[in-house]
Amino acid sequence: GRGTRKPAVDRAPAETGADVDETMAELSDKARRLCGTAGVAVYLRGPDEAQFRTAVTWLSETPVPHSPDFLPSVFDAVLATGESFFRTDVTMQPLSRVTTGVVRGLGAVPLVDAHVQTVGAMCVFDLTPVAFGSAITDALKALGRGVSVGPAAEPAAATAGTLSPVPKPAEHAAQPPSP
Predict the structure, then answer these.
(1) Coil, strand or helix: which one is 161?
(2) Residue 81 in 3-state DSSP?
(3) Which of 17-26, 66-75, 133-142, 159-168 ranks highest by mean pLDDT?
(4) pLDDT of 146-156, one tens digit each?
(5) Cβ–Cβ < 8 Å for 21, 55
């Protein structure tokens, strides 16, 4: 059977604080490994918080791109519609006049909690075009579902089937030098 198991949801009272930051760090790490992008931005709000917290990760030798003036509008659109957004190369349909050192590949998905409330959005981006294949977009959307902003819940096993391990090169045993 190929049925997907739903993770057990812990119904304990939510405690925000380190939990939200931990969730954000975990989402950033998983999304970056999934897409291979240099940048990930996560906007997330805890259960009793009015403001979204923002965590931006940028892992590249290149300086962080000009804070893309369109990122907030992408997040607003994702939050308002609950729809994902994927562009292989946004410079093909420029969202701003600056085209050097700017984001090109861009993907955004809503972050939805166990009660199916949109609690934030996650964006992956890079200075190069990003090929968002269906496996990657599906895995990113799955990563955004069932986000826990309360005490540690079981991690969702939704992405297990989409990541294929990179095969390691066979190790050749070195022959001892002949006497």
Answers:
(1) coil
(2) helix
(3) 133-142
(4) 898 764 444 44
(5) yes
Residue 83 has a CB neighbour count (10 Å cut-off) of 11
Measured between alpha carbons, how far is 31 from 47 in angstroms, rounded to an integer?
Answer: 23
Q: Which positions ≥6 away from 23 have C-beta within 8 Å?
A: 44, 147, 148, 149
Q: Give the residues across from 107 on adjacent strands.
A: 86, 124
Structure tokens at 129: 């075009």
The pair phi, psi for residue 61, each rounded to 5°, is -70, -30
By C-alpha distance, which of 111, 148, 154, 155 is closest to 16?
148
Q: What angle do CA 79, 137, 42 make, to 5 degrees?
A: 40
Query: Which amino acid makes up residue 2?
Result: R
Nearest to 8 by CA among 146, 170, 130, 165: 146
DSSP letter (8 states) at residue 91: G
* pTM score, whole prediction: 0.68
Helices 134-144 and 18-35: angle between axes, nearest 10 degrees: 170
